[in-house]
């Protein structure tokens, strides 16, 4: 139970850090919140959260099946994954908030959900991010359930989109590009911490 809670909490943070960088999907959710209300904005975010969960499940359950193979190649997985995460973290930290929304239909609740699900699921960087994270030393030797990982990723991503949509709805006049830039910096810093941990852990 304790191991599953630890896995859930770690995956929860990962779900937030992957969802939080403000790119075209984030801009789309913000625009939909401002134009059509908090519920449409939240459902748009849940489409992205669902896609993150799909990729998180692929990475988590796939790694469980080949645990022995991965533990035999931990060093190279750690180096490759750590380098990729370092690149991703620095890129996220330096990235400026997108100045235009991703193009998608905004007609109806189902359309809001499915459009962002499709836009996120077709991004190959997402699966690479989860694969790199789940090969890190904080996961490779854990014995908890992969369901805890998947649930944590979904919960973290969902909480982020709930916070973003309702926060924009309540404080839309105060949310500036500078705030979005800081969101990118914090997310990038979290990913860099994971990367450095992977590279220095023996």
In short:
With 202 residues, the chain is an all-alpha fold. It has ten helices and no strands.
Task: Describe the protein's topology.
Blueprint: H1 2-19, H2 24-36, H3 38-65, H4 67-72, H5 74-94, H6 109-121, H7 124-134, H8 137-140, H9 146-171, H10 177-200
Helix pairs in contact: 1-9, 1-10, 2-3, 2-9, 3-6, 3-7, 3-9, 5-7, 5-10
Shape: globular
Strand content: under 5%
Distance between the termini: 27 Å
Low-confidence stretches: none
Number of domains: 1
Mean pLDDT: 75
Number of strands: 0
Radius of gyration: 17 Å
- Most strands sheet: none
**Order of SSEs:** HHHHHHHHHH
Structural class: mainly alpha
Instruction: Give the % helix.
Output: over 70%
Q: Total helix count? A: 10
What labels describe this entry?
202 residues; mainly alpha; 10 helices; 81% helix
Describe the structure.
The protein has 202 residues and is mainly α. It has one domain (2-200). Helix content is 81%, strand content 0%. It has ten helices and no strands. Helix 3 packs antiparallel against helix 9 (146-171). The mean pLDDT is 75.
